[in-house]
């Protein structure tokens, strides 16, 4: 597939706090995985 979506929809429920840092960390990890995959 050539479509990658990285956003907060992977969090299954409300965290009770602002999820901005969590979403940023998930996007950072996803971007690293994508870069590794493209590099191969």
Report on this model:
The chain has 1 helix and no strands. With about 40 residues, the chain is mainly alpha-helical. The protein is elongated and about 40 Å long. The two termini are about 15 Å apart. The model has no long low-confidence stretch (mean pLDDT about 85).
Uncertain runs: none
The gross shape turns out to be elongated
Alpha carbon gap, first and last residue: 15 Å
Helix content: 40-55%
Provide mean pLDDT, rounded: 86
The value of Rg in angstroms is: 12 Å
Topology pattern, helix = H, strand = E: H
Number of strands: 0
- Helical/strand content category: mainly alpha
How much β-strand is present in the residues?
under 5%
| Major β-sheet profile | none
Number of helices: 1
Give the tags.
mainly alpha; 40 residues; 50% helix
Provide a brief overview of the structure.
With 40 residues, the chain is mainly alpha-helical.
Topology:
Elements: H1 20-39
